[in-house]
Input
Amino acid sequence: MARYASPEQIKTGVVGYGGAFEMGKHHLLEMQSSGMVPTAVAELDAERLAVAEADFPGIETYSTVESMLAESDVNFITLITPHNTHAPIALQCLEAGRHVCCEKPLALTTEECESMIAAAKPRDLVLTAYHNRHWDGGILKALQNIREDGIIGKVCRIEAQIGSHGYPGDWWRSSKSISGGILYDWGAHFTEYALQLMDDEIVEVSGYATHGHWATQTPWKDDTIEDEAMAMVRFKGGGIYLLRVSYLEREPPPYLIKVTGTLGCLEFSPHGKYRITTREDDEVVVREGHEPESESWRFYRNVTNHLVNDEPLIITAEWAMRVIHVLDLARNSAAQGRALPVTYP
Output
């Protein structure tokens, strides 16, 4: 049953209006373009609240989440805060009867995701994660080539890797207890890609991590993220997903994602080119091209249509939790030194 008669009834707010990447402004503008009404901002930094007021004249501003929930009629809230705060703030908002979107990742652990879903479902509230890269041009083109055109045959292996050579910085993303670790940034996006491409159940996850040359030199000391971490996901039908994120990479690959199938392979990167390699008449054939434009605007459009027109929600809490389940198992597997079975295949 539709929750609202029109998009204008969806009064949106953000928790966090920090300067990094201007994400608070980005989210409110995306919501606004989908018909929602930017209504409130909660932010600890008074200077950033002033920026929010300049960006959105007349918007309500609050210094705490508690005051926003008590005084504002905002009914859809996006969290743009450090990863380890997603679950506790989301629970506050859900228990106050507000719909919640978390910047990816949804949370840090499977258990946190479960608690958030348990709070949202009985209240008939939307809980989602901002997996805007679900609609990147590269993944849309790959899905067309693989699912619709069958160019590379059955998918057997997905490899995703990203990295550079240097030590982690000194902000919160370099703290493992706050960010979750090196896999929880781009690794979350790549894992979401893989789960779109490999339409199968997961059997087990193995994780590997290295703390060495760089990690000992960062201000975070014992709490620093890894120098390099890897995950291997095995699927029921025999497919494999391999993920590697590294600060030890001196020569980053030209393509970040490689999908190998029974008839060939497809390589692509977010916002870049793609390459398809196959064999025809015993000859290697390479096709290259530019990926189409991202359609990330579809995220909030889908959320709006879900709340107003009962359109199926694409990034459900369960879908977002599956990404976290993989990363959480990889982190625990690395600590335990063994592959771990899945709870949510």
In short: The chain has two domains: 7-130+297-314, 134-294. The radius of gyration is 21 Å. The domain at 134-294 is CATH 3.30.360.10 (Dihydrodipicolinate Reductase; domain 2).
